[in-house]
Amino acid sequence: MQPIVQVENLHKRFGGLEVLKGVNLRVAPREVVCLIGRSGSGKSTLLRCINFLEEPDEGRVTVAGISVPAGERTREHRQQIIELRQRAGMVFQSFNLFPHKTVIENLIEAPVVVKGMQPSQVIPLAEQLLAKVGLAEKRDVYPSKLSGGQQQRVAIARALTMQPQVMLFDEPTSALDPELIGEVLAVMRDLARDGMTMIVVTHEIGFAREVADRAIFMDGGVFVEEGPPEQCLSNPRDERTRRFLERIL
Amino acid sequence: MAKEALDLQAITARRRPWSGFRASLIAWWCVWLLVLLFFFSGARFSIGPVTIKTIALDWGFIATWWPFISRGVIVTFQLSIISIILAVVLALLSALARLSRVAPLNSLAGLYISLMRGTPLFLQFIFIYSALPQLGLVLNAFPSAVLALSLNYGAYMSEIFRAGIQAVGRGQTEAAAALGMTPWQTMRRIVLPQALRIITPDIGNQFIAMQKDTSLASAITLLELMGLARQAGAPRQRFFEALVVAAIWYWLMTIVLTYFQGKLEHRMARSDR
Fold this sequence. Notes:
The complex is a heterodimer of chains A (about 250) and B (about 270). Chain A is about 40% helix and about 25% strand. Chain A has nine helices and ten strands. In chain A, a hairpin with a 2-residue loop joins strand 9 and strand 10. Chain B is mainly α and about 270 residues long. In chain B, helix 6 packs across helix 8 (about 185-215) and helix 8 (about 185-215) runs antiparallel to helix 10.
């Protein structure tokens, strides 16, 4: 099957430190991939390279037919990145809602500004997505009035309003109080069930085991273990994976 | 029931000293204002060997020339409004230039800011009005004053804008970029509105400061408030009276501006509440 996300030989250096050492990844449509590993293993950098929030030094990323090689400096390159980003929604650890806009304004901002749509065209979809994340009644409040869990659910809805074909999650529950993690994971679970392609950087092993089609354990900028979650997370072959899992479980 | 009564007591106990303080503040304001007025009453009295003389104003002069001097308020107001608008535009452009990766633009803005902040505003007024004609560039007093004020305040406010833009978190830029927005769309729709909110108090302070620096324009013959006060006072040796009239107007304008500044800040803080 044709992959919807394809990462080829991706390298990324920060100064002298090589954070990604030639990563290859193919994600099939509707597949849910969880990236796990200790901090500094390169998993967040890989995710951020997929939508070019970090410009990789070498390699190529393809998302839903938009194929962008690394390390170019042209206007055309920047345009391609914008095209690619419209197909890959991203959810951040720290939510990053726009604090000067209400919830509904947060949702319609990108479709209006990037796609040039009329607000009246986007609002029905935005309201539908808000209802889907269980926050229809928060339509007109400002983000500062919401709990962390609610903010993250709005952030997911905001990314979905662009109707992306892939969703990237960068530790979506790491900044949340423990009692708020469940509501965000529930929304993500629904999304996976609806057939969204997802790449999730997470420490939630339970979520990975339950929802992921594939788990990837990263260390030192490479994949050290990769497979179905029951095998990768319950029965790891690699020593580093085993030690990591022992520590966080 | 008993608990409610107790809570009520706690609330009033907390409230009373505060409102009491406020009342005494207002009372003391009035006292000091009266003392200030008394100094200008012209009264003369003795306590034992010490004779106290207060300032005797020529009220006839004030009554005659008040309307003449007050006409300058309009020019002063026009001058400060036009200059603050141009200064904000200049400040925004030079702040964006200073944040850009385009070396010629960035350094040009740096030079402009350094030059304007490194020389006195008074010199800039005289330079534009009196020195530029040597190069064949003759400007009237009003445009000269607008140019001097907006160039100078533009440079100062540029640093305020830059700090405000930098104070908007990196996460905001990343979130906008991840949604497919261009750097310019991100700046216009996401960063600038938040930066403006952050810097509103500082911009307000600059506006209030500029309101008073318009008086320097009298040195280049502009007949605004200060210029008219000097024109009325000088031939009649009544500088004191003329300047008191001008001072009262500057003070009133500042009070009004401060009031609106407070209102604006309150409105800007809407989404944080």
